[in-house]
Write a structure and sequence with these properties.
Largest sheet: none
Structural class: mainly alpha
Strand content: under 5%
Shape: rod-shaped
Distance between the termini: 63 Å
Length: 84
């Protein structure tokens, strides 16, 4: 999806905003601002991925005893069936 369409802005509005940003910060500051923005987004994504992997590993630890219990139950049923 186009970012411009998300905010329901046309090309004139985007151009006006870009012009205002250029006037406020100047040509030399814009690359520094974009670099900082990129770094912030990267750190956010790294933190998000870290939390997601931590949650997934905890879920696996929770599911592990359930799987072992189910396996024991299946073995017990097999032994009972073989006796009959």
């Amino acid at each position: 999806m186009n970012l411009v369409l998300i905010f329901n802005m046309g090309p004139q509005e985007v151009l006006l905003i870009a012009l205002v940003v250029l006037l406020l910060f100047g040509g030399k500051k814009i690359p520094e601002l974009m670099k900082g923005l990129g770094k912030g987004i990267r750190e956010f994504n790294n933190a998000k991925n870290s939390i997601t992997s931590e949650i997934n590993s905890e879920m696996k630890e929770i599911e592990k005893p359930k799987a072992e219990e189910k396996s024991k139950h299946v073995v017990k049923e097999r032994v009972e069936l073989e006796k009959d």
